[in-house]
Amino acid sequence: MLSEIAGNVWWSWSPEALDLFERLDPAAFARSRNNPLATLADPDPEVLAQASFRERVERVYSEFRTDLAAPLDPGSPRVAYFCMEYALHESLPLYSGGLGVLAGDHLKSASDLGIPLVAVGLFLRDGYFTQYFDEVGRQQDRSDALETGSSPLVRTVGPDGELARVRVHLGDTEVTVGSWTVQVGRTTLHLLDLDEEGTPAELRDLTHRLYQGGMEARIRKEIVLGIGGVRLLRALGLSPDVYHMNEGHCAFLTLELLREELEAGLDRDDAVAKVRSRTVFTTHTPVPAGHDRFDYELFEASFGSMARSLGIPVPELMDLGRIHPGDPGEPFNMTVLGMRMARSSNGVSQLHGAVSRHMWHDLWPGRPVEEVPVGHVTNGVHLATWTSRAASEFLTTHLGDWKANQMEADFWARARNLPDELLWACRRSLREAFLDFAHRRAGEQTLRQTPRLDPDTLTIGFARRFATYKRAPLLFRDLPAAIELISDDTRPLQLVFAGKAHPDDEGGKDLIQELHEVTRHPDVNGRVVFLEDYDMAIGRAMVAGCDVWLNNPRRPMEASGTSGQKVAVHGGLNLAIADGWWPEGYNGSNGWMIGEDESSAHLSEEEQDDRDARLLLETLRAEVIPTFYEQDEWGIPVRWVARMKEAMATLPHAFSSHRMVRDYRDTIYLRHGA
């Protein structure tokens, strides 16, 4: 039973299952980044012999089998979901940031809701990277290969019982693409791998690492993902009704679908229409660097053989990815290909949808901006994955079966009736547990620090990918003013940061180094801490333990930003710029908005940063800090707890990935019909 459970990452959203595996071998569990399979090599025989343990195993196994045997949604089309990265659990480092977290949560909610969905990605054998620091606080990186033998990954097998393999052309070189499979509850994820016999040695490690290498490596990875992914589905006997391209990296799948339709005898216009009828596209960023562009020479070298097989000249094939077809100087754009070949395109928040309509208006030059056919489905988070066990037990005890009712607004409205003293005691307990975690992690890392984090001090968290537009050190733009708040004798602040900069992003590394210098400032006195090697485990600990979740991107560059959606179930509050999901979530009483809905169109980046840093300090000084420290005679900050209740009542149901996947099913997967 334990082996069967360990082979399906269903355990990643079952705290009871994870607890069972940890008890078998706590040391192996910790060393392996909480990997259940690592504990089965040498389990504690005394634990296995305990009747109470065996009873718990049977109970968890029964729940596992019940979940897997539940009927699928009969009204949903069959969906193929393509994405470059997936965050399922920290022991499977197949992700770099928010895109992967979103994709992993999408798969888990599809499983819970019974959506018949199969997913395709790349087998990133070396993961993203392991972060460590040199003596001056500069980020360094190294690769640690995933041990497949102690992971839930298994080789993909076709209907004939043989290992599934397909052939793909990378330019004029034909390569063999294999696959690994991981079960995500009832959802199946296939991960494509070039490390196969039949692939030239110099190409075998192409799929090992995420987002690294030059443009030639990038286009090759995307050919493997899009074209190889569709061919793998065919080798497995699968013909989904809908193909969901989650970001432009996978848009080449439309060219493989086009090839199939042309080979079936359709003319080009009818073939394109047929492909469009089955594909949908989600864009995730307004940042230009997030949209891959390939020049003519690279595109021709990569797709010349496919163009010949299609009978389409390379310039005409390239026009599918150009805003202005026929312009020989315009590069091929993956987002343009995705949007042009999809029946539906969407951004990932209401604001991002509007930004995307402006950004891609030239694709539909005859329409007013407001009629550009790019909608939105606001991102959400898989609550069962991100809710700590302590918070889950609190919610179950005082509200009821929150997992079964997680999309019901009326259920969450009960939070407004929670007793102040119970909710505040839970919040303090979560904060204290997190600070213990932070002290322990800080003592183990290469970035040496001496944290002095206090369980009664207002704790602010910031954890995400360290892109420059996210402005991690914004609070310290006026360093003396920030230190004055942090070091106040009676109403201090403490802040915990975590995150990775892309190995090629020197600007992002500069931000981390700037924070490292703040942690060493003598007047900070250990109240600012940076946790090394950010992963899902650190993320879960931080969203559970921090009182305030800080998000201060340069508006409107944050498409959604889901990390703040995870704090409300823990009684945490958001303090955020009016960007991404927060304008939809904020109601004036369930957190704080920095500067309300400030327009930035007339400001330079420097001016915008100066203004937002000032507004952040003012909001902390005038609103956040006084509300936390003003307590009644029983030691309860009544106004703060009221905001906690309002956040818990209004945010979890509206920003869960269950709601998100249901919206995709109802408004995108089904709306246009198969």
Describe this structure in words.
Helix 6 (98-113) crosses helix 24 (657-669). The longest helix is centred in the middle third of the chain and has 25 residues, at 420-444. Strands 1, 2, 5, 6, 7, 8, 9, 10, 13 and 14 form a ten-stranded mixed β-sheet that branches. Strands 17-16-15-18-19-20 form a six-stranded parallel β-sheet, sandwiched between helices. It has a two-stranded antiparallel sheet with strand order 3-4. It starts with a helix and ends in a 5-residue tail after the last helix. Helix 21 (582-585) links the parallel strand 19 and strand 20 (591-594). The chain has three domains: 2-69, no CATH class; 79-379 and 661-669, Rossmann fold (3-Layer(aba) Sandwich), CATH 3.40.50.2000; 396-655, Rossmann fold (3-Layer(aba) Sandwich), CATH 3.40.50.2000. With 674 residues, the protein is an alpha/beta fold.
Amount of helix: 40-55%
Radius of gyration: 25 Å
Q: What is the 3D shape?
A: globular
* Percentage of β-strand residues: 5-15%
Structural class: alpha/beta
Largest sheet: 10 strands, mixed
Give me the count of strands: 20
Which parts are unreliable, with pLDDT below 50 for 5 consecutive residues or more? none
In CATH, the topology of the largest domain is named Rossmann fold
Number of domains: 3
CATH class of the largest domain: Alpha Beta
From the structure above, extract its key features.
Rossmann fold; 14% strand; alpha/beta; 24 helices
In short:
The protein is of the alpha/beta class and 674 residues long. Helix content is 40%, strand content 14%.
